Amino acid sequence: MISITRRFLLAVTLACSSVLMASASYADKIKVAAIYTLPVEQQWISRIHKALNTAASRGDIEYVYSENIANTDYERVMREYAEQGMQLIVGEVFGLERAARKVAKDYPDTAFLMGSSFTPVAPNFSVFDNWIHEPSYLSGMVAGAATKSNLIGMVGGYAIPEVNRLMHAFMDGAREVNPDVKFLVNFIDSWYDPPKAKESAFAMMDAGADVMYAERFGVSDAAVERGVKAIGNVIDTSGDYPGTIMASAIWHMEATIDKAVSRVANGSFEAADYGQYSFMAYGGGSLIMDESLMSSETAAAVKAREAEILDGLFRVNVNDVRPTSDN
Question: Has this prediction a pTM greater than 0.85?
Answer without folding.
Answer: yes
